[in-house]
Amino acid sequence: MIAAIAAAAASAGHTTSVEWLLVAVPLVGLGLICAALVASGKPGTHPFPFNLFDRAASSLERVTGLPAWAASGVGVLQWALIVAGIGFMWDVAWHIDLGRDNTLFTPAHMMILLGIGAIGAAGGLSILMATLRGAATKWHLGPVRIPRGAAALLALGIGATAGFPLDDIWHANYGVDVTMWGPTHLLMIGGASLAPIAGWLLLAEAGRDAGHARIRKVLWTASAAILLVGLSTFQLEFDDGVPQWQALYQPVLIAMAATLGLVTARTVLGRGAAIRATIGFIAIRSGFALLVGPGLGHVLPHFPMYIGIALCVEAAFYLARNRSLLAAALTAGALSGTVGLGTEWGFSHVWGRMPWQPVMLSGIWAAVLAALAAAVLGAALGGILTRRGAGVPALAVGLAALAAVVALAVPFPRNTADITATLRTSPAGPAVYAVDRFGLPSSLRPVNVELDVNQAAAVRGADIFQVNSWQGGGLHNVRLLETSPGHWRSETAVVTGGAWKTIVYFSKADVVMALPVSMPADLEYGQAPIPLSPLRTSKFLAASKLLMREAHGGAAWPAIVAYSALGLVALGWLTVIGAGAASISRQDSPPAGPRQAGSSTNAPARRRRQIPAAVTI
Asked: Is residue 602 within 8 Å of residue 134, measured between CB atoms?
């Protein structure tokens, strides 16, 4: 593996050996852990190489107190998600700062591929361990024992990994669509984002009381934090300051991710769990941000805090104590979508890249709906994980799922309007010699930007109105301030020239548009430069035409394949996860542990006491 990494590094060109250490170190660390487990384990009865898994299984069961199939699956999964998370955030920041890759096998891409591949490997390893140890799982295929969570991990890993080669085909046919929301990107992101749920299903199938107390607490709490991180990945374009959608999408995504994750955590882990999960989320995201930003020198990802929403969830469960789980969920959704989201609104003005503006209030009901729907879904998931049975009625779950789809659809449209502006630029400092991405001579020119808009009322009070510069070696967002009626001026100087792409970005409700300031030529895609001009009058364009300038039309078949694969794979994922969750909710006791000499895997397991559906504190 190290030799393969070295060979890939030699062909990458634009990367360094230090960056490839980020790929090698996690691999070496995982290998050392596996070697230690094998070395310290008891000999097994299976032939080589399966006896190595026997030894590792005995070590895992001794150290964790969990069945080997649960401990191995969850352990590898959490390693996989950390590796994929670093690779994903690094890759997005790299593209924002530097543009497109010169090769497919970059360090960031390798980490993504390793991570999503390891999700499937975690499922396969769990199945292998369960089979070798003779676990009495409800699902089996002949002698093969299949834990429900492992089946979901296998499906998620295979589907997400398939997105990687499909992504290369997609870009080869349609150019570079620098957005997270392409079909192949969603395959990879979606698989990783749903994987924490499958990991929790593994722990639930093993039993809520399985494992040594300290290990159990760490794994269940870590699972809650990682679920929050996974659900929050869809916000990354807002976190990095390059949104391609309405500004309203950010509070909708925050409300849905935070409420679903935190209500699940509170339902499963009890009092204070929402706060503990949020602290874990902040720790993980801070680590990612410090590594990608100061560590690797890329754009620093900002992220929501979730503390206010966590306090709302805790308060809701207290207010609904001794009442039904559905009542607690609805209370949590209502508080999170109002008071909790209000705290995020305030925090957006403290550390957000694009502070939320009053114009958003007209559509904020969609975020409230998202919070209510996510709270019900989170409570239903939590009820399954704690074996509460029908803690939330099936009708409520169905309505919540429908409401979630509606909430996500509300900010989806991106429209244009007839807005013309006169753009003026003036030097703000001396020009500096530079080269563009093709090595051609250029110059970096700091300029002040002024804008006279013919329909000032259409622009005034926008969600976002600023000058964005990216792909020249960083990202700069500079606000436009209205200094007189209909006249806007950049708050500070704006960078242009070299490889920098600089535009005026405008978003107000469902109108998302942009105006070019300057853009370099692109020899590979045959695009002429948009030169810096001291005076230009032009119409605003759909923002996607400038944000995804390299994207182009192509044959229809790759789109048909990609979107069909996305739909079918997503349906398959939800089916496997749903079937596993339903099966676990009907199961009275966890599968039996390792088969002992003289015992039978068909012996009845001790019936587990059912937890009442009423909320307790």
From this structure: no
pLDDT of residue 171: 83
The two tokens of residue 560 are 């048909």
The answer to whether 263 touches 332, Cβ cutoff 8 Å, is yes
CA angle at 476 for the pair 250 and 434, rounded to the nearest 5°: 145
- Tell me phi and psi for residue 508, to 5 degrees: -145, 115
The whole-angstrom separation of Cα 415 and Cα 473 is: 30
246-265 per-position pLDDT tens digit: 999 999 999 999 999 999 99
Widest distance between CA atoms in the chain: 89
Single-letter amino acid code for the residue at 307: I
Q: 571 to each of 31, 233, 565, 575, 577, how far by Cα in Å? A: 34, 20, 10, 6, 10
DSSP 358: G
What do you get for the CA distance between the two ends of the chain, in Å?
A: 50
Residue 279: alpha-carbon gap to chain centroid: 17
Count CB-CB contacts under 10 A for residue 610: 11
Tokens standing for residue 474: 């960083």
Tell me the two tokens of residue 424.
């003026």
DSSP 596: P
Secondary structure (3-state) at 438: coil
Would you state the pLDDT for residue 100?
Answer: 82
Q: What is the mean pLDDT of residues 134-140?
A: 90
Tally of CB atoms within 10 A around 143: 7
Q: Report CA Rg, the chain.
A: 26
Angstrom distance (rounded) from CA 273 to CA 282: 14
CA 366 to chain centre: 21
pLDDT score, position 614: 46
Per-residue confidence band for 573, with pLDDT thresholds at 50, 70 and 90: very high
Give, as one character, the DSSP assignment of residue 45: S
pLDDT given for residue 191 in this prediction: 93
Confidence of residue 99 (pLDDT cuts 50, 70, 90): confident
Percentage of the chain surpassing pLDDT 90? 71
CB-based contact 613:390 (threshold 8 Å): yes
**Number of continuous H segments (helices) and E segments (strands) in the chain:** 19, 13
8 Å CB contact between 159 and 573? yes
β-pairing verdict for 432-435 and 441-453: antiparallel
Return d(Cα 574, Cα 342) in angstroms, integer. Answer: 32
In this prediction, residue 613 carries a pLDDT of 42
Q: How much is the pLDDT for 604?
A: 37
Full-model pTM: 0.89
Q: Where are the alpha helices (DSSP H) in 270-298?
A: 273-290
